[in-house]
Amino acid sequence: MSGSQQPAQQLRRNLSGRHIQMIGLGGAIGTGLFLGSAGVIKAAGPAAILGYAFAGLIAFLMMRQLGEMLVDEPVSGSLSHFSGKYCGRFFGFLAGWNYAAMYLLVGMAELTALGKYVHYWFPDIPLWMSATGFFLLINILNTLNVRVFGEVEFAFSLVKVVAIVLMIGFGVYLLTTDSVPGASVNNLWAHGGFMPYGISGIVLALPFIMFAFGGLEMVGFAAGETENPRQTIPRAVNQVLFRIAVFYIGVLLVMLSLIPWNSLVDALNSGGDAYSASPFVKILSLIGSTHAADILNFVVLTAALSVYNGVVYCSTRQLHSLAQQGSAPTKLLKLNKHGIPVNAQFVTAIITVVAVGLNFLYPNGTLELLMALAVAITVINWVLTSLTHLKFKQARRAAQPQGFPAPFSPLSNYLCIASVLGILLTMAFIPAVQISVMILPVWLLGLYLAYRKIPGQRRHKDAQAQTP
């Protein structure tokens, strides 16, 4: 890393309130809902709805805590900036590189998945070719004016939102017209009860539920490039609870009312096609929709493109923010004529190419291991969010009251910290993800050793305030 800090180059505030609203909407909807909800239903049955409600409340409280800090100081890089400023230099370093690593891992996974989605329709096209095409498309778009990113994400998010609304509307129509024999809200409790596996089923499902909400932080990364952030950010954050209630709880209430949940699980376990893991495809198939897989393939393809588009944006801004804080090479501060951190984007692109290439060459277990680590990294940053907000409140106690105070703080902070640490403990007993808990100390030690290598004059307790 360079030993001297260059003046921070300024990002441009070209994202409108419309963009932020849809980025917030799209951040709550991804493959974690369309495909990942299958594992949640298998673990908890209809009580998956309670799991999403609890996790959604925790996610909302954490977003309000982050939102209060962003309204006070709307910066790109969000958590790493605030953690460094209020908790100490190392915590900003930790949060920043945690997010950078997580987004790179997620980007690798989504590119790999995109190749498989295209392969479903066009089996003669090699997976690497599809992944390369999407990689080039999204990265080229992200080098243009940030408003282009906003418009692309607006379009992707619109497709996801419309898909969920149509699913809910179609499900309500089927329920109210007796079009499907046996369809009734009684299916939510008539087959072994609403909580067939008790509280333990919900607890075991929580790690997978919480990970599905990981995209909510995109609003924080966009703060440094948002017009009128003190007006648009509160609106976007306040909609988190509504989005989760409608898009997760609403769609699951309707879909699990259409058929018995245990019949759905049997169908999921017996399926052998690429979309056998999707509860929505199975439900539509079981009620006679022959084009369910094609419909969902388009929606999930769009969702994966949206996630990768957001990943490129967020990882680029995170590296730029780390360079501003002195925790990454100052060359990553460079902006192109459109105000885009091109060097930071180039670094993320190179790492993604290498990672995707390794995954295609060595597919057995590589992706699963890295994504398990991404889950644990996400949990650490959620804890840091609530801790940083506590320090923020202490530091700002003598100042004027903030315009967007987090509700029930500090009790909500302690609830979030306890809940997230409980989820991390639960992960240690789940075979699919326990490896992430085991290697997490190694990851944290590696980050600490990397931090210690930063020249001493750039290591100080509190990060310099960097306002765009």
Automatic annotation (TrEMBL):
GO cellular component terms given for this protein: plasma membrane
Primary localization: membrane
Family the UniProt entry places it in: Belongs to the amino acid-polyamine-organocation (APC) superfamily. Amino acid transporter (AAT) (TC 2.A.3.1) family.
Gene Ontology biological-process entries: amino acid transport; transmembrane transport
Recorded name of the encoding gene: aroP_3
Keywords: Amino-acid transport, Cell inner membrane, Cell membrane, Membrane, Transmembrane, Transmembrane helix, Transport
Membrane topology annotation: Multi-pass membrane protein
Record's protein name: Amino acid permease
Keyword Cell membrane included in the entry's annotation: yes
Species, as recorded: Pseudomonas fluorescens
Subcellular location: Cell inner membrane
TM spans (from-to): 20-41, 47-66, 86-105, 125-142, 154-175, 195-219, 240-261, 295-314, 342-363, 369-390, 411-429, 435-451
Annotated Gene3D superfamilies: Amino acid/polyamine transporter I
Residue span(s) of domain Amino acid permease/ SLC12A: 19-454
